[in-house]
Amino acid sequence: MSWMSPSYHLLQWPENPISRYKVYLYREQGWDTEHFVAGHPVIFIPGNAGSYQQVRSIASSAARQYHGEPGGRAHGMEAQKKLDLFTLDLNEDFSAFHARTLKDQATFIQHSIIRVLGEYDHLALNQRPTQVTLLAHSMGGISARLAVKREDVSSKVDMVLTMSTPHTIPPLTFQLEMEAIYQQIAKSTGPLLISVCGGVSDSEIVSDSCALSSTTITEEDGFSVFTSNIPGVWTGVDHQAMVWCHQVRWLVARVLLSMTKQEERSRKLAVARRWLIGSDQKFNPSSGIAQRIAVTSSNMTILIQSQTERVTELSIQHCNEECHNLTSKTELIPFPKDPNAPFPLPGEGIKAGEVVIAADVTLHQVDGFLAFNSKAQAVVDVGSHLDKVILGSDWSE
């Protein structure tokens, strides 16, 4: 479960193109103490019959990760911008059942992007954001993709991140107009597109419809990932829980925060891949020595348990007469506290203490020792790195 202290501030909009829809700015009470926006704008788009208040779990996590403490600034967040979470009140309309409603929402999103960017007019011209990020749940992802089909709108959006969105098959197929919308967005162009899927635990949409095929998007333009394969989540997530499941909302907030310091499209995509897929995670070392580890082979793996939810930096050095910094390739792996209990527990996710970081290092000489430096992590185990291959029912190394 996740906890938050939400507040919503209605944006005044005399020229609102669709009067039944509204835009709110989210603020975490006691944490967001600023009276103006100066960060990176993110617009949350709810799905079919969804509420604008569904943004609260992710927005609260983003605020708390950024500040560290009420009104403060967390360590490691100095280079990142704050997230300004805006959320759309779409009147809880049934967008999955009515293509015209879906089009109205796409139109409102287009106007909302311009309206939200106008909130930053008080800043100097070179400090104003020129793009927003769209964060969408369920059918909100289809509305968002339809909205950015307009070229002048597409240039104002850096990424569309969807959660439990049926990208390839509409939930109901009795409207030709809905089919036409899906054909219109069949090929993704413009902003980065990332799809997070709940898998078989999501009983409201066809699981495969959430995945982005190679005909929809290229590797340079985005990807899709199932929560059961996200490091530190490793479990299916149902349709509604996608926006409040703690492990997922923490990661989504961290992805958005980490992207704020990246200007290039490729770097933003690399950040998303690192957090959501775990590929090519490399941490550069810092100074200092806390623990010594005997070198036993040229390829070693160190299992490290973090006292915080995620590791941001590791320092590993190879020492003999002198110490040399090593860059480790790391990944998260399960580490249940009770080896006799099911993992994960049925209907539950992975807790922070049930994850360890596996850091692989390659050495040119088998001598001396490894020096591991960190105050927030502890070494659980260390040894030679072995690759095991399963051939039928037989194991081989």
Automatic annotation (TrEMBL):
Q: Which UniProt keywords apply?
A: Endoplasmic reticulum, Hydrolase, Membrane, Protein transport, Transmembrane, Transmembrane helix, Transport
Put simply, this protein is called GPI inositol-deacylase
InterPro entries cross-referenced by the UniProt entry: AB_hydrolase_fold, PGAP1-ab_dom-like, PGAP1/BST1
Enzyme Commission code(s) on record: 3.1.-.-
Q: Where in the cell is it found?
A: Endoplasmic reticulum membrane
Give the function comment from the record. Answer: Involved in inositol deacylation of GPI-anchored proteins which plays important roles in the quality control and ER-associated degradation of GPI-anchored proteins.
Q: So what family is this one in?
A: Belongs to the GPI inositol-deacylase family.
Membrane topology according to the record: Multi-pass membrane protein
Primary localization? endoplasmic reticulum
Q: Which residues form the GPI inositol-deacylase PGAP1-like alpha/beta domain?
A: 38-259
Question: Which SUPFAM superfamilies did the record assign?
Answer: alpha/beta-Hydrolases
